[in-house]
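Morning F.,

Quick status update on the modeling queue. The single chain you submitted on Monday has been processed. Sequence for confirmation:
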Amino acid sequence: PDRLDALRRAAGQDERAALVSLSHALIGSAGTFGLADLAEAARRLEHAAIARHVNGSDKDDGAAIAAALV
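Structure tokens below.
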């Protein structure tokens, strides 16, 4: 629950570095427990946050993806 709250906060405040870190951790946790759909959603969030961090594009909305996770 704490990580999901942190993920929501990071997405809501457009903290891309935090989104990358938190989503990456979620990928690992979901994989450990065999939650493939959650891992894939977290992977999409991580990639969106990286893309926006690198090129400043608003094409992928990290907040919308994070909202879909929780």
